[in-house]
Each structure stands twice: as C-alpha cells, then as structure tokens.
Amino acid sequence: MRGGAGRVAFWGLAGLLLAWSLGPFLWFLLTSLKTPLEVTAMPPTPWPSGSLDFYRAAFGRHDLLGFILNSAVVAGGSTLISLGLACLAGYALARLPLPGRGWIMAGLLLVGMFPQVALAGPVWEILRGLGWLNTYPGLILPYVTLTLPLAVWVLTAFFRGLPAELEEAALCDGCGRLQAFTRVVLPLAAPGVFTAAILVFIYAWNEFFFALLIMTDRARQTLPVGIALFQGQYTMPWGEIAAASVVATLPLVLLVLLFQRRIARGLTAGAVKG
Amino acid sequence: MSDGNPGLRLEGLGKRLGGVAVLDRVSLTAAPGELVVILGPSGCGKSTLLRLVAGLEEADAGRILIGDQEVSRLSPRERDVAMVFQSYALYPHLDVAGNLGFGLKVRGAPRAEIAQRVAEVAELLDLGELLRRRPAQLSGGQRQRVAIGRAIARRPRLFLFDEPLSNLDARLRGQMRVELMRLHRRLGVTTLYVTHDQVEALTLGSQVVVLARGQVQQIGPPAEIHARPANLFVAGFVGSPPMNFLAGRVELAEGGPGLRCPEAELTLALPAWLADQAGAELVLGVRPEGLVLGADGFAARLELVERVGGEAWLHLARGRQVWVARAPAPPWPAPGETLRLALAPGAAHYFRAGQRLEPPGDGA
To answer: Can you list the residues of chain B whose pLDDT is less than 50?
Structure first.
C-alpha cells in the first residue's frame, strides 16, 4: 500500500531527525543522573542509577545559582531593551513614510551578519573605556546591539502584515499615534513580539564568546561561561557539567512550550473581511 | 461636541500623490444634519476626500470647516469625526462591547457612561446578543452593524462612510440601506457617504456630489442629477442602463435645425433654440426610458432582449449606432425584428464639448 509505505518513511525520517537533535541532550541528561564511577565506566553504562549527587555538587561546590541569576539578569535585560527598541523601530519602518527605508533594512541585515571576532576587540575597548567590564550593562549592551537587527526584522514584517485600517480606525476613534500603537497594534502583534522575544532571550542565554571576553570575574559570569569553566585542575567534571547544562536548558524549554500557543494563535482573524 | 450638530464645508481641497492630482479644487457644503453622497467610479478620489476630512491625510490646498471651526490642520482626535471603513476595521482583540466603547474609553469617559452608551447602541442596532463575541465570530452583516455602532456610540460631530455596503450581498445591502436611512433620520448627524453605487447615491443622499478624476462634476439633489446631468460624464455615469449617446453635426434645413449622424445613418430634428449651433459637433443623449416604440420614428433592428423582472431592455442597432430602449410590458418583440423608435418629447439632452446645453431662458 502506497500510503502505508509513505507513512513509515515519514515517521522513520522524523524519528531519525529527532534522535539526531535530541540524542546529545538525552545523553547529558542520563550522565547527570549517574555516579562518578558510572560516568567513567568502560563500556559506558546506558542506564544511570538516578543519583542526584552531581546536581548537589553543581549547586554546592560550584556557584550554579549565581550563574543562573547572572544569566537571568543579562538575558532578561537584553530582551526587554532590545524588544522595546525593536517595537518602536519596527513600527516606524513598517508604517511611516521613511525615505530610504530599504537601505535601513538592508543595513540592519548587514550589521546582523558581522562576525563576532571582528567586533570583539573594539567592543572590549569601548566597554573598558566606559568602565563596564565585568558589569551587567557591559554584557547587555553588546547583546542588544547584536540582537536588534533580527528583532527589528521580525517585528517589521509582523507590523506590516497588520491591516493599516485598524490603526486609522483607532486614530479616528480618538487615539494619538502612540495610543493607537499600544492599544491596537501591540496587542495584535503579540505573537510577533513573543517570537522576537524568545529569539533574543535564547541568544542572550546561550551566548558564550562575548560573555567569556567581558565577564572575567567569576561572580559575574553567565551560565555558558560558568559551566565551561567548571573544569578542575586535573579532571574534567563531566557529571557536574551535565547536571548544570540540564538546569541551564530547562528555562528555555519551558519558555518555548509556554509561549508556543500564543505564537501560533492567529489574533488578526476577523479584523477585516478577508 | 461644542455646537450640537454642525455642518461641513470643504473649500478648494487639493491633494497630489506622487505628482498626480488626486483631488483638484473640490468644494462642497453639507448643511447641518444633511446626508451628502459622493458618487464616482473607483479611482476618482472619493476615498481620499474622506481621509482628508477625517484627518488621516493632509490636504495640499484648501480648507475644511466643521461648523465654524477650521480643522484642516487638526489631528483626527481633535476633529471628533467618526469613520466607517469599507473593510469595517473592527478591533479583532476586543469583543463587540469593547469595539463599541473603544472611542469613549480612549477619550476617558467614565465606565458607567461607556456601559450605558454601549447598551443604547446595542439596542438601536440589535446587537444585544452579540456583545461578548469577537469580530471573527460575526457574520458580514453583523460586523457591518458593529462598525456603524462604533461610530454612533461616540456621538461624533460628523459621520464618514467609505463604501460601507460594498462587502455585503445584494439582499443585505438593500436592508442596510434602509436601516442607514432610518438611523440618519433618527440621529440627524451630518454625514458624508462615499459610494460608487448610483442606487445607493440616489436613494440615500439629499445631495449628490458626482466626482471624477478628482474634480467635482456636478452637485445637486438626486432627481436633478438624473434629470439634468451637467456634462457627458455625469450623463453616462448616472442611470442604468446608461444613456444612449448620438454624435453628429448640426445642419440647418428649411424645417429647422437637425443633427446629422453618419454613424446612425440618420438625421434627427433638433429644437429651434439649437439653430445657433449650426455647424457645431453635438452629442445628443437620451435615456432608455426616453425612447418610445411605435409606428412613427426611425427604423432599427432588434438585436437582443435583456429581461429584468417585469420589464426588458431592448438592444437595437441602426448603422453602427447601438441603442438601448425600455420595453415596459410583455410580450417582448423577437430579436431580428425591425422596430420603430422615436424620442419622447423633452427626453433629449444636448452636450457640446462635453458640457450640457440648456435652452435659453431655462436658466441652468
């Protein structure tokens, strides 16, 4: 039967893809639940004994909670600032009669493609001049700069998709430009705003290179750098790293699962006759 | 809401978009409480005119006055004008009650007042059952009523309607047209109503402004527009089926002036006052209702019978000229027959260089 074969192929491929992307994470999850002996055993033990020792060590011997806090402040701050700016910029680019709008959009795209290595030196110099090395703003500033192009692009596309007549109706109903934006445009663009917010947050949460460069003070380091520097003098503490990585991944997974519905919901249905 | 029920005056409005004049010296007046219809084909600038009055776009020239106040440079908010959009433009994230009360809420009206007005409007437009629904859950006709209700709830100084019925099916359109007339009579708010539908224009408006290529072609009561079109455009645009046009040259014979039309292989007698047009190119217009079938008149071949309910439109040909005439009652003649056509007395309109010619002493 042709349909049956197609179905088997579909699920087979889907399973392969899933195993490919989830495999490493699953292995880390299993590793995090092992004892030190199980981690180094040869041949590897597939099923852990379910020990939580590595988690205790990650929080106890290493300052995992501190890293989480740093990451939350930096990623949260970057997301708020980046989105605040991107909403206004995206709306202006989508709606206002700006000369050279195409060039602005192309310029943004270009900035977004700059290799980080090329920026690292100047950014470090600027931050040192500002005295912002080893501070939260010192990391938030480059993150906002680097994520802004993407956020602006996402939001511009979203705002442009909203019918302009809704804003005009709001203007006629007595709104000012800003009020029309906050009362009508923003609620309708919520799925786009969430999408952009999650993209920015994930970037800032996972970013390693700048974090390593700017945060040399152990007490200010974010999760990726903090975990990477877990290594002791003689050994690589794989178990603790695995446990910390699982902890670091959980917020992202929760965030995406939580907002998935809102992103998917088509809020503009029924606004104007299709 | 300063003076209860102000009128509207537009003085020489002009608007250019991308180097093209969309509106050119448009002037018109709507008396307090009057419903003025702006009628024109698509692209004539009528929607732009509404947007200028609403303050969504700024005019390049001219003035807009609501009552005695000049509003040309004011923001939409300050003008206090309500607009009903062709697409309805309901807020999809708000329910019907939220849509109806939006304008009041934005202007900071107290909650109790908003609730009361929303209830009033819901009652007036029969929306009571739907107050908790979202626009997506409404039918086209219901959305239309919510859009009108949203405009009414705020009690604005002026209503602007941008082809509000064009998205409805024919039956609903007829119902809403009657409902709009009733609402207008009841509320008495000065209204500017844009449409390309001449039936709407001629039934709704106490004044009709015919607009084409950004210029006012004629302003007058519906009957006047229909009976005495000011130029060829209005003559051809208003009336359905459209007026028959016959182009020719005025010639003088012993019996009086006549119009010689090579296309129709015909010379038609003209009234005596057109004698001073001898040698001029004229266009004679006659509505299908103004052609009489009978024993006298000129012969024409019946090509097609277009039946519309109890009456029929006869498509006739003579030479290269095509005529449409009304056949009031069955039995209809059969295609292929030769019929005789004559112009009913007073049914002919005369145009020279596109403009209407009036008999002397009959003051235009």
So the answer is: 1-3, 363-364
How much is the pLDDT for B109?
Answer: 92
pLDDT at A272 over 80: no
The predicted-structure confidence for A224-255, as pLDDT tens digits, reads as follows 999 988 876 677 788 889 999 999 998 888 88
Domain ranges within chain A, ordered by starting residue: 63-229
Interface of B with A (CB under 8 A): 51, 54-56, 75-77, 80-83, 85, 87-93, 102-103, 106-107, 134-138, 140, 143, 150, 154, 167
Which of the pair, A256 or A134, is modelled with greater confidence?
Answer: A134
Which A-chain residues 146-165 have CB contacts (< 8 A) with chain B? Answer: 163, 165
Report CA torsion sign: A160, A161, A163, A166.
negative
A263/A176 Cα distance (integer angstroms): 28
Cβ <8 Å between B55 and A171: yes
Composition of chain A by helix, strand, coil, percent to 5: 75, 0, 25
Among the partner residues A166, A179, A270, nearest to B106 by beta-carbon distance: A179
**Is A42 in CB contact (< 8 Å) with chain B?**
no
Asked if B245 and B282 count as a contact pair (C-beta separation under 8 A), the reply is no
Q: Which chain B residues are Cβ-neighbours of A175 within 8 angstroms?
A: 77, 106
Nearest CA in chain B to A271: B92
Which CATH number is B8-237's, of 1.10.238.10, 3.40.718.10, 3.40.50.300, 3.40.50.880? 3.40.50.300
Tell whether A273 is within 8 A of chain B (Cβ): yes
What is the location of CATH 3.40.50.300 in chain B? 8-237
CATH class entry, domain B244-357: mainly beta
Q: CA angle B116-B119-B123, nearest 5°?
A: 140
Report yes or no: B86 and B163 within 8 Å, Cβ to Cβ. yes
> What ipTM was estimated for this complex?
0.83
What is the dotted CATH code of the domain comprising A63-229?
1.10.3720.10
pLDDT of residue B1: 42
**CB distance B154–A173 less than 8 Å?**
yes
d(CA A22, CA A19): 5
Cβ-defined contact of A174 to B107 (cutoff 8 Å) = yes
Q: What is the mean pLDDT of residues A174-190?
A: 90
- Name B318's bridge partners: B321
- Whether residue A44 is predicted with pLDDT greater than 90 in this model: the reply is no
Minimal Cα–Cα distance from B88 to chain A, Å? Answer: 6
